[in-house]
Recover the amino acids of this structure.
């Protein structure tokens, strides 16, 4: 059984940066919390917890020391409140997310109705909404666009892990209904490369395995993109979740991983698939 890893797969710059900043905070020996999980990868979060980096669900759970803002970003009012509370804040917001935040804030300041293409309950989207003062429309599907828009001047930003296809669908639906449409394609370049590379590989193999947190939106989206061209797609967090039955009679397996998946985690899954090759080749 041949195992091939997608050309572009796994951890992105923004996640690597966030993990590095959290590690540096832990090395100070002070009390350290992240505000929510630093990234959507339970294994990486557990590793940080073992180093003394706790997870605070809210500011109420962080009374002293260092507060690390997760890669998804937050409403800037939360950062201000943390500093007023006396916490030292390390902002680990992904630079691509910061760009989306600033684009939304500028559109709002310029008088546009801001439309955010993304998931309303995702922390990244909640942070972008905060940059508009809470005055933005969140659209995950075209059907989420309201019948009456607040104005005919609309500006769009995109959750960094969304697909270009989803953005194009929303743009096409809005164009006939507005007098002016300004679009900021804030999809992360690494996300786009991962998605295209994974789908290209999925077309050529018998089965596909996507590695990453079950709570990770970008990992789940990666699996969906692969399923569009190959029905035998499996999403796992670790090698322990692999089922030999998935590979019975399979000659070629492709592997990709979400942007919040460390290389070591993906390598563990690849090694486990290769190790079971002899058992399932018949």
């Amino acid at each position: 059984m041949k195992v091939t890893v997608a050309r572009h797969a796994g951890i992105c710059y923004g996640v690597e940066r966030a993990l590095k900043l959290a590690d540096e905070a832990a090395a100070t020996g002070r009390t350290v919390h992240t505000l929510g999980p630093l990234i959507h990868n339970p294994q990486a979060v557990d590793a940080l917890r073992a180093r003394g980096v706790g997870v605070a669900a809210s500011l109420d759970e962080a009374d002293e020391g260092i507060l690390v803002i997760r890669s998804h970003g937050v409403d800037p009012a939360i950062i201000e409140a943390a500093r007023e509370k006396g916490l030292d804040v390390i902002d680990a917001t992904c630079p691509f997310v910061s760009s989306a935040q600033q684009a939304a804030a500028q559109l709002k300041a310029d008088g546009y109705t801001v439309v955010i293409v993304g998931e309303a309950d995702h922390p990244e989207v909640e942070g972008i909404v905060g940059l508009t003062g809470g005055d933005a429309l969140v659209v995950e599907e075209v059907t989420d666009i309201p019948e009456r828009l607040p104005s005919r001047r609309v500006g769009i930003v995109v959750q960094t892990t969304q697909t270009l296809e989803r953005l194009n669908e929303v743009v096409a639906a809005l164009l006939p209904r507005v007098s002016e449409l300004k679009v900021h394609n804030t999809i992360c370049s690494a996300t786009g490369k991962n998605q295209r590379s994974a789908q290209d590989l999925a077309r050529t193999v018998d089965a596909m395995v996507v590695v990453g947190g079950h709570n990770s939106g970008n990992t789940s989206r990666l699996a969906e993109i692969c399923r569009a061209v190959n029905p035998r797609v499996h999403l796992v967090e670790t090698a322990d979740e692999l089922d030999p039955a998935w590979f019975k009679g399979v000659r070629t397996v492709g592997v990709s991983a979400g942007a919040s998946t460390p290389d070591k985690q993906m390598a563990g899954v690849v090694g486990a698939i290769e190790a079971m090759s002899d058992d399932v080749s018949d």
About this structure: The longest strand covers residues 153-158. The mean pLDDT is 94. The CA atoms of residues 92 and 189 lie 18 Å apart. The chain is about 40% helix and 20% strand.
